[in-house]
Design a protein that fits this description.
Length: 189
């Protein structure tokens, strides 16, 4: 799908920031419950100058991310999930950009939970587009392998994603997924 999109990485980053400006935080300020409504997503797309040809596709993906039919989506998971659409380059470039979209505080650090969330978001968007996906178990294996690798410096269960991007992108399960050879498709058991 990325080859049909016109949105650039700069526009996607602008879209993320515009979406965050419209985001409503969950009860008690819980950032894990931060969502954006469809109307505000449309405003954010206008503010970020998202090409008109891409807006319909992104709106359709917003519908897929609206899990309960309330015209709302989890802002960061949605933005992370659609981030690969801003690149037609290799998986390493797409993953690096997904990590950048997710890393709003620019720490460049990832926890195992962050990495699982990023892969789950990308996986969900791939499934909505009818592409092959990784199973949740495969995502867990990739994360475990990266965080247990010999290049992992034991620093409070975090890694600097730039230091591990080659390792992540070359993991056999990521290679299989990125080449369209995932073993699952949306709706299959």
């Amino acid at each position: 799908m990325a080859e049909h999109m016109k949105i650039t990485k700069a526009e996607m980053l602008e879209l993320r920031d515009a979406c965050l400006a419209y985001t409503v935080t969950g009860e008690g300020g819980d950032p894990t419950l931060s969502t954006i409504c469809r109307r505000d997503f449309h405003k954010a797309m206008s503010k970020a100058d998202v090409p008109k040809t891409d807006r319909e596709i992104l709106d359709g993906l917003f519908t897929m991310w609206d899990k309960v039919g309330e015209d709302r989506a989890d802002t960061m998971m949605f933005m992370t999930g659609i981030s690969p659409l801003a690149s037609v380059l290799d998986i390493k470039t797409k993953l690096r950009f997904a990590f950048e979209i997710y890393d709003i505080d620019r720490s460049e650090a990832l926890t195992p939970g962050d990495m699982e969330a990023i892969f789950a978001a990308i996986n969900a968007t791939a499934s909505y587009l009818g592409d092959a996906v990784m199973t949740s178990q495969q995502i867990e294996i990739v994360v475990e392998d990266v965080f247990k690798s010999p290049t992992f410096a034991m620093t409070k269960d975090t890694i600097i994603f730039a230091d591990h991007i080659n390792e992540i992108a070359s993991h056999p399960m990521v290679v299989q997924f990125s080449s369209g050879g995932g073993i699952m498709r949306y709706g299959s058991k």
